[in-house]
Amino acid sequence: xxxxxxxxxxxxxxxxxxxxxxxxxxxxxxxxxxxxxxxxxxxxxxxxxxxxxxxxxxxxxxxxxxxxxxxxxxxxxxxxxxxxxxxxxxxxxxxxxxxxxxxxxxxxxxxxxxxxxxxxxxxxxxxxxxxxxxxxxxxxxxxxxxxxxxxxxxxxxxxxxxxxxxxxxxxxxxxxxxxxxxxxxxxxxxxxxxxxxxxxxxxxxxxxxxxxxxxxxxxxxxxxxxxxxxxxxx
Amino acid sequence: xxxxxxxxxxxxxxxxxxxxxxxxxxxxxxxxxxxxxxxxxxxxxxxxxxxxxxxxxxxxxxxxxxxxxxxxxxxxxxxxxxxxxxxxxxxxxxxxxxxxxxxxxxxxxxxxxxxxxxxxxxxxxxxxxxxxxxxxxxxxxxxxxxxxxxxxxxxxxxxxxxxxxxxxxxxxxxxxxxxxxxxxxxxxxxxxxxxxxxxxxxxxxxxxxxxxxxxxxxxxxxxxxxxxxxxxxx
Lengths: 234, 234
Description:
2 copies of one chain form a homodimer. By secondary structure, the first copy, chain A, is of the alpha+beta class. Chain A has a domain at 87-232: GAF domain (Beta-Lactamase, 2-Layer Sandwich), CATH 3.30.450.40. The first copy, chain A, contains 7 helices and 5 strands. Chain A has helices at residues 2-9, 16-25, 29-32, 49-98, 102-116, 146-149, 215-232, and strands at 121-127, 142-144, 159-163, 181-187, 196-202. Chain A has a 5-stranded mixed β-sheet with strand order 2-1-5-4-3. In chain A, a hairpin with an 8-residue loop joins strand 4 and strand 5 (196-202). In chain A, helix 4 packs antiparallel against helix 5. The longest helix of chain A has 50 residues, at 49-98. The radius of gyration of chain A is 30 Å and the shape is elongated. The termini of chain A are far apart. Mean pLDDT of chain A is 86; it is low at 1-11 and 42-46. Chains A and B meet through helix 1, helix 2, helix 3, helix 4 and helix 7 of A and helix 1, helix 2, helix 3, helix 4 and helix 7 of B.
């Protein structure tokens, strides 16, 4: 709207963008032609016009500087958080590669990974089937009816990040800590039932969030699958 | 494209007089587009002290803004580069985890990894010992006398990044491409001779640089060691 107005009032073919480019290319325009200041609003009230204009410039620049500083801090924060996440994921993967048996591997997934990933709950959730015994690798593993797991079995979707809600809270019933956010990772292990999930829970409601990237968790998922298959000789 | 076009128009058409006319016809231009103030350099010869001070502030703020913009761009570039490196390393590790034998693993390290890591040369360099045959996993592997490798056998130092120099060029003699920068990764495999190295070379002299972080290459190193040990049953 504003832009249109400006363009409408203009008699020649020059547009606002042209003015910007010209001033960028000729930074001394105003310095060398101070009479231009008279054309700049606020309209001249007094001899103080230049001071007003400078004040305006200073405020605009201060705002811009503050914005850029904030953007910078956010970027640095993001870089640091990514680095920490990467470090955690890489540590668990290095530990995984050092396991020498299915037992050691399951032990790492079900118990040690909780601390390594700085979480309040981790577990394997497996679809309840007739041949359940085959998958009872550890007493901690929970078996659940397919009906409940169905919302998490979607083609091409393997990572579900969210705050805890009615949709996923059944994964975390009876956990020692109240789980407020989670990552549900569907493992692609058997190409047939039982469906299986590696679930991560945090009592921090912001630990996992739909908006987060899933590249690292995807990497973890694929490493877990490979190592599971190695030890299960699949 | 757009910008170039505008600049072209600017060079051919717009003159200082046009700016004056535009501003006269559109007195609210600066008010409605305060970012234009950043492009304005104030007149310098004022005797008024306040104006001088303000001018100083403006120049200082303009410099600060430009600095912050540059810092921001650099940060974003860094984030993107890190993401790409991480992706490459994670891809090679996922491929490693899918190998089903020592042969497949060696094949990945010596051949496929070159493309996956976007490099011009990769190889395993092993210290020449009497039991050399034991380590001749593939004809590409090069055996080298300990004397030459000694500068790269330092306690607690495992990753050597640098431009190619007399110190490390022997790793890359007879390579199809002239190698201008490299990462020499000492593998901790046998706890005794032969010393062994995974070497990465690029014809781009900036691909590897002493100033770079080595976290990702360290992660790759440890994954390779674990998988080597798995397949060698060490």
